[in-house]
């Protein structure tokens, strides 16, 4: 069971490289709940689920984990390539404090190159 | 703007999305080439709630914001294709979600809410249509979208993915 209501079921792994870069990754399994309807007989992982992958990855790697963060907006997202069942998505995250909130941006890559470029905005909801 | 009531049967004739990703229930107004208003009723029966723990708090039941975005995109997709629907994701002309910017989430949506999306077409090029959107629950604005881009491609657009899948099936790659 989960604390999070999300259309993405796959497990999102995260880690920090020796150079300090934060990476997140996920394999899009054929059992993802969106596939039966997107689209029947022709599964394509929806663009909004690629945004959700970055959203969840960003929350798992917040720079100040003692505070509660919430997604407050999408600055931009551009989609270049489709994601299919079995694809592994990876992203190197750039987190930065931005006034009262935070911004997390990344290029998401997959087996067919760059999938999307996304920048998300987060609100700092105070100490946990 | 024409008042109307197009339900799920009509939506299925106009969009390739199906359960659980058909995220609209009704179109209530349309002015082709200009504006459209559509509704989405949120329920705890949607599969995203299935894995939520029984002791999760009310707040944990907030509707996933990316699905609000998808729902509004579907309203834009309906408007973009009102006079020439593209109900088959494998047809010779397909509709793609090209990108989005300036999205602000300004309110929570929970099971029991009815979200109303108002989309307005702001620009149109040969194969690209641009929209802005505002989504409300009652009097409250829950989401604003400055720019939403829908692109049309020949059927090969979505099918570009197919060769890589075939490579994998031949043992070129396993995941």
If you had to describe this structure to a student in words, what would you say it looks like?
- The complex is a heterodimer of chains A (about 130) and B (about 180).
- Chain A is mainly beta.
- Chain A has one domain (about 15-125): Thiol Ester Dehydrase, Chain A, CATH 3.10.129.10.
- Chain A has 1 helix and 6 strands.
- Chain A has one helix spanning about 45-60; strands spanning about 15, 20-25, 65-80, 90-100, 100-110, 115-125.
- Chain A has a 6-stranded antiparallel beta sheet with strand order 1-2-4-5-6-3, covered by helices on one side.
- In chain A, β5 and β6 form a beta hairpin.
- The longest helix of chain A is centred in the middle third of the chain and has 14 residues, at about 45-60.
- The radius of gyration of chain A is 15 Å and the shape is globular.
- By secondary structure, chain B is α+β, with helices and mostly antiparallel strands.
- Chain B has a single domain, classed as Thiol Ester Dehydrase, Chain A.
- Chain B is about 20% helix and about 40% strand.
- Chain B has 4 helices and 7 strands.
- Chain B has helices spanning about 10-15, 65-80, 155-160, 160-170; strands at about 1-5, 25-30, 35-40, 95-105, 115-125, 130-135, 140-155.
- In chain B, strands 1-2-3-5-6-7-4 form a 7-stranded antiparallel beta sheet.
- The longest helix of chain B is centred in the middle third of the chain and has 16 residues, at about 65-80.
- The interface of A and B includes residues 46 and 77 of A.
- β3 (about 65-80) of chain A pairs antiparallel with β4 (about 95-105) of chain B.
- Chain A: It is an enzyme of class 4 (lyase).
- Chain A: Pfam families: ApeI-like.
- Chain A: It comes from Streptomyces iranensis.
- Chain A: Keywords: Lyase.
- Chain A: One of its GO terms (molecular function) is (3R)-hydroxyacyl-[acyl-carrier-protein] dehydratase activity.
- Chain B: InterPro entries: FabA_FabZ (IPR013114), HotDog_dom_sf (IPR029069).
